[in-house]
Fold this sequence. Notes:
Elements: H1 8-17, E1 26-35, H2 45-49, E2 57-59, E3 65-69, H3 78-94, E4 99-101, H4 120-139, E5 143-149, H5 153-165, H6 167-173, H7 180-188, H8 200-209, E6 223-226, E7 230-237, H9 242-256
Antiparallel strand pairs: 1-3, 1-4, 1-5, 2-3, 5-7, 6-7
Amino acid sequence: MEIKVLSFDEWLAKMDSTCRKDGMLVGVELERVIVGEDGNPLSIASQVLSFLDPVHHSPELSTWQIECKTSPIRFEDLSNELRRVMNEQEVAVRLHDVYIQAMPVVFNGNPPILIHPKYKDVAEIIVRRAGAGGLKAALAVASWQLNIGCSDAEQCIERYNHLVEALEELIVMGDCSNGQRMQIYRQATPNCNPMRLESTRELYNLLVSRGLVHDPARLHTLIQIKPGWIIEVRVFDATDDVQSICNITWSTLLIARGLKSTTKFSVG
């Protein structure tokens, strides 16, 4: 059945409807890999997830990877919340006598094609967009994503553009694989660089042209705007280093506000 394209006003209302309007809250989503004693990935994501709260833990594209995610929170609370959800995963995997860790690149970039059932449609989209090699590339990498809440559309566009202008700086800031993960990722998503936006109308027209007006999160650019006027930054290599994630988050927030700085924020 053909889905009706939302009008600009309908789309704007939908984007506004989930906007929290309560300050610059943040959220982190971290992709991690289940591994055995030998450090090799194990395809038991569904079994491990059955012991975890789906609000904070979910499957990823591959059968060896799961994601933990924080709630939308104040930056000051990020460290404790992230450690909490990571620890929940570590307890769950130990029930299976295995381990979990962040790995920016797995199988030396040449993974088997083992897709989690939830993401079969996503895998098909990747194959149409980038071929079988693109799917293999998508399975080979893992990242963490930073979500930044904004109070309204105008603030979101302004802060999004600050981040787009600093794209290369952000990539370097979050690189812990000597550029390998990003190089492989671009094989899966060749046109992933974000573009500056002059207005919400320009964003709407972009989404309509890609057939994504109902699902903006599937634009899959390295920086993108999601419903609720949330900016998602998708450039950082997966890491278990909570201090590093918090430092990068702080620097990214400063860049989003137009304050270029490499100030480190110390957390416990």
